[in-house]
Amino acid sequence: MSIPFTNLDVFTHTRYLGNALAIIRPPTPTTLSQTQKLQISREFNLSEVVFLHLPESLDSNPKELTVDIFTSTAEIPFAGHPTIGTAILRAQLLGLEECQGINHQGRDFTTGEESQYPVVSIVNGMTFILVSLLNLVDLGRAVEIKNLNPSTYYVEHLDEGWRNGLCSTMYYVNMGEDGEGRRRYRTRMFETGAEDSGTGSASCALACYLVTKNPRNGGDEVKFGFEQGVEMGKRNEIFVDVMMQADGASVEKVVLSGEAVKYSDWLFLIFKSFVAYLISDTLKC
To answer: Which tens digits make up the pLDDT trace of 129-142?
Structure first.
């Protein structure tokens, strides 16, 4: 059995920059088991892999599609660059249509132990420690800040009902406002000792945190631009627009956007041993 998949670089328009993504398109939702999906994700060794379940007929052009997002260790409820990359591939395969948004419940946490940094989530299971730094020199040394390594901050310190999933650290430096009124930040994100080149979920969490701490933004749409992955040589441009409720205390809508470029189409060969092999005779560049 062969299963098609596509490689993209997300949050960039230049191949081999941005954040790499693999989108696998099994013929039915039951073609692959959870165990097989996890094994395939480990084979790719990317930050996330998407399993996209398309309709039997591409002519049906549905507004809702089912996607499963996996890291090399588990399935996760949401991630930014897989969502953007999948939306762009969906548009290429099915055409542009208005798609349904993703509804999530989020909150600031009161941690079980004293913390001088905010711990924020907009999706249960995706939690971020947000650390403001003064300048790019400090940002370049962020990996040396051992006491904020996520591997030393366990989810059991979080509120009841939210002690699951990933807890990562997002470092950011305020770069001021650009000529279009967009607030610019340079960022780096670390999870269990590894750095991610472009993190849409963390960028959304940071944007929501920043606007909710400023009541002057009540009823406004606040635009952010996050530049991530520079220190890795994998520059990402991530855009987040946040619409506040009139009271300025809660978020009404979050829009994550960015570019993506496809660099290859491949096939998986799946055997009874569940070992996946790659073949490149369908490579398109």
So the answer is: 999 999 999 999 88
Rounded CA-CA distance 210/254 in Å is 13
Q: Please indicate, yes or no, whether residues 124 and 69 belong to a single structural domain of this protein.
A: no
- Both 122 and 240 in one domain: the answer is yes
Tell me how far CA of residue 200 lies from CA of 134, 236, 252, in angstroms: 22, 10, 18
Q: Which amino acid is at 253?
A: K
CATH code of the domain containing 74: 3.10.310.10
Per-residue pLDDT tens digits for 45-74 = 999 999 999 887 666 666 778 899 999 999
Domain-located, residue 224: yes
User: Coil, strand or helix: which one is 251?
Assistant: strand
Which residue shows structure tokens 């379940």?
A: 53
Tell whether 116 and 198 lie within a shared domain. yes
247 and 112 share a domain? yes
DSSP type of residue 162: -
Q: Are residues 271 and 193 in the same domain?
A: no
Q: How many CB atoms lie within 10 A of CB 276?
A: 19
Q: Which residues are catalytic?
A: 48
Of 173, 193, 191, 187, residue with least CA distance to 127: 191
Give the integer Cα–Cα distance in Å for 151 and 120.
17
The mean pLDDT of 90-107, rounded to a whole number, is 60
pTM for the whole thing? 0.84
